[in-house]
Amino acid sequence: MSLTFHWFLPTNGDSRHVVGGGHGTPATASGRDRPPTVAYLSQIASAAEDLGFVGALTPTGAWCEDAWPAWAEADRLLAGFDAETVKSVQAGLARRESEGQRRMLALHGGGRDGLEIHPNLWAGIGLVRGGAGTALVGSHEEVAERIKEYAALGIEEFVLSGYPHLEEAYWFGEGVLPRLAGEGLWEHPAGRWADSAQVPFSG
Fold this sequence. Notes:
The protein is mainly alpha-helical and 203 residues long. The chain has one domain (4-198). It is 38% helix and 9% strand. The protein has helices spanning 38-51, 68-79, 83-94, 99-108, 140-152, 165-175, 177-182; strands at 4-8, 55-57, 116-118, 121-122, 135-136, 157-160. The strands form two sheets. Strands 2-1-6 form a three-stranded parallel β-sheet, covered by helices on one side. Strand 3 (116-118) and strand 4 form a beta hairpin. Helix 1 runs parallel beside helix 6. The two termini are 32 Å apart.
């Protein structure tokens, strides 16, 4: 078995902050540091392919081995969610008939407390974004361990994203995928992986 990973393209723009829009939530100018140009989206799709994601999807965690920067990043994102925006988005999402959205609302209840619903699993992103999504937050090793738990349950395919999308694709592709490959759970779809023969002046 080889796990399959897809990467999300930020078609509403990208930033180190949550960018509004998508899944029926209003697009906002705040945090849209990188507009969704064809060149930028192509750069992300190309990086995702090189890193071993099987596809980049269009919509309907931190740069470190340690977990604390990832949680600091989650806290930073949460601090950027003003109360009125959360209230407005939650009211709109509560009108949805999606079972996945209903369950997501039940996870966080529209509040900021108790958002780590399982070790390394954060529901905070659902306060301001629609869709049934949670975030894996932690070190490379911790995220790999959570994915291994999912794989043990029979889950083989994952759709991932992060803020900003390009850097997070590299964070996952260079830090988590090698760990999963070492456990025999993932292999690059193109059958390649960076080794010393591919690194200039290393051999």
